[in-house]
Design the sequence.
């Protein structure tokens, strides 16, 4: 049977679910909360109060590729990222932290949070290796689930954001 | 209001006495965070006020909850695995041989907390005896309504399923729901969870073939221990089996039990005519 | 007892290493599956390998399959330690030959509990 391009393919893409239909803020909060308690320390609670991120923040993220495609992005101040690294490494932390140490530890926290976010989404999906630097831009503000928390009084933002822009119609 | 020094010291002393774990000064916030849910469950909005009320009116169950909240993050599935090994290797074969094919076996998991123990038993039985879900029923009791609700839901966090649950059993008996793991429906049907205060007259239940009453008696004084053991015995079949915690015994408490060695574990059986 | 810890994150290698050393293990690390195989090829055969899933060069699932396909490495217990946490992923890892599976995030107690299940707690710790 021959099918005429009736826009089926485009509709299939348009029909991709938005993240807000797949996961809610309390789930992201509980995933992040468990990661902090287990990895950072058993008393390390995240308090769901938004704070102002510093002007020059650092982000760590992993990409999720599957029925929903996007990134799980952790953003915080550079000093907070370094403190997080020390807390994660505990007694194994080197006296002088290199940027590489921070990138590695912060990236691993993104991997842990991202892996668990991925598992709460419809699958099968793949998970990328973590990346650290300036956060990928939010493509579609409707395809975003973001939580803002305080850790040791410092702001941390966790956003689950779609990779797709609102698709421009092709003519 | 923050935790008073008196309240903190009392909690430290209790935890040290029952678990030998030392809570260092500076852990006040930990005590606050862990005890607040227990206080709220009892309708008390503040931890210091809650601690004061327990100090003034001693309550073994409260003490147990406080110690557990401060000493264990999550209950393990095969916590001290030997009493579970004993169940499948010795106890169940003996009971299945002694009972008729249509007789339902009844197991009681007392002070079952969030449900790891009753579901561990349910999984083991489903994996080891035919028609387990119809042959065995498991009663899970806890004093806390919140724990009973959690047990009924049969849902566990990622951190909880990481604690001593073998991966093959996780994939066989659980499905993932959002960020949690849910026990399979047939196993949930096998387990009935109800509120029950062990230190008061017990509701009509049983008769039980097997009772798990682990790490509970240590929190009670001698007369209460004796009363609990007597009440438990009244709910057991004459050829039933009782499992206590590794540090607990009926010896010197209640002489109407016979201690038997089962593999690497000990069980207690009602003495005939006692 | 010996353990090999394979994870592309140095921080995670340090964390798992510290837990295992605390239990009495002698530990070596590797940054991906290929490096892990190199350690085994050297003849350093551990009782336990803790291996992440997502890594560059060779991922944990490929590593598990490679170890399982070599009969002389049959004595090694393989435990995946990863943030991959879907039911289907755990099934895949077990089917490939992993014995146990620890989901990140985990606590030190979680590793210890799993080793107890596997009979891999060094004796003095188990008592």
Sequence:
């Amino acid at each position: 049977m021959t099918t005429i391009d009736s826009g089926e393919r485009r509709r299939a893409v348009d029909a991709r679910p938005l993240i807000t239909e797949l996961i809610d803020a309390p789930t992201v909060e509980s995933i992040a909360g468990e990661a902090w308690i287990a990895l950072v320390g058993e008393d390390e609670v995240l308090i769901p109060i938004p704070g102002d991120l510093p002007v020059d923040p650092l982000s760590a993220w992993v990409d999720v590729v599957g029925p929903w495609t996007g990134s799980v992005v952790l953003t915080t101040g550079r000093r907070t990222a370094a403190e997080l690294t020390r807390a994660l490494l505990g007694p194994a932390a080197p006296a002088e932290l290199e940027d590489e140490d921070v990138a590695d530890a912060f990236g691993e926290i993104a991997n842990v949070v991202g892996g668990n976010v991925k598992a709460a989404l419809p699958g099968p999906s793949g998970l990328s290796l973590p990346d650290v630097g300036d956060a990928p831009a939010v493509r579609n503000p409707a395809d975003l689930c973001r939580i803002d928390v305080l850790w040791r009084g410092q702001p941390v933002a966790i956003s689950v954001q779609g990779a797709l822009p609102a698709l421009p119609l092709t003519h | 209001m923050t935790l008073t020094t008196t309240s903190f010291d009392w909690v430290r002393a209790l935890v040290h006495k029952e678990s030998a774990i030392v809570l260092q000064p500076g852990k006040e916030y930990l005590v606050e965070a862990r005890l607040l849910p227990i206080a709220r469950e009892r309708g008390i909005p503040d931890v210091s006020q809650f601690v004061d009320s327990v100090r003034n009116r001693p309550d073994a169950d409260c003490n147990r909850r406080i110690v557990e909240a401060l000493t264990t993050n999550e209950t393990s599935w095969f916590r001290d695995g030997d009493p579970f090994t004993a169940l499948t290797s010795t106890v169940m074969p003996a009971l299945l041989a002694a009972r008729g094919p249509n007789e339902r076996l009844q197991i009681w998991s007392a002070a079952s907390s969030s449900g790891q123990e009753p579901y561990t038993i349910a999984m083991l039985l489903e994996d080891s005896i035919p028609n387990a879900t119809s042959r065995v029923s498991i009663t899970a009791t806890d004093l806390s309504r919140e724990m009973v609700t959690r047990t009924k839901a049969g849902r566990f966090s990622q951190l909880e399923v990481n604690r001593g649950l073998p991966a093959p059993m996780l994939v066989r008996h659980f499905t993932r729901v959002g960020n949690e793991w849910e026990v399979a429906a047939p196993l949930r049907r096998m387990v009935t969870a109800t509120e029950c205060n062990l230190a008061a007259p017990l509701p009509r239940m049983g008769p039980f073939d097997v009772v798990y009453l682990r790490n509970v008696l240590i929190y009670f004084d001698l007369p209460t221990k004796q009363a609990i053991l007597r009440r438990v015995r009244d709910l057991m079949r004459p050829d039933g089996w009782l499992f206590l915690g590794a540090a607990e015994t009926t010896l010197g408490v209640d002489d109407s039990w016979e201690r038997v060695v089962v593999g690497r574990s000990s069980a207690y059986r009602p003495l005939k005519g006692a | 007892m010996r353990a090999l810890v394979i994870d592309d994150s140095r921080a995670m290698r340090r964390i798992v290493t510290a837990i295992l050393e605390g239990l009495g293990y002698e530990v070596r690390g590797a940054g991906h599956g290929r490096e892990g195989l190199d350690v085994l090829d050297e003849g350093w055969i551990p009782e336990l390998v803790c291996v992440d899933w997502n890594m560059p060069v060779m991922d944990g699932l490929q590593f598990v399959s490679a170890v399982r396909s070599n009969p002389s490495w049959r004595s090694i217990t393989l435990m995946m330690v990863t943030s991959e946490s879907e039911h289907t992923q755990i099934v895949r890892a077990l089917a490939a030959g992993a014995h146990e599976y620890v989901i990140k995030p985990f606590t030190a107690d979680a590793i210890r509990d799993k080793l107890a299940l596997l009979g891999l707690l060094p004796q003095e710790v188990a008592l």
Summary: DSSP finds four helices and six strands in chain A.
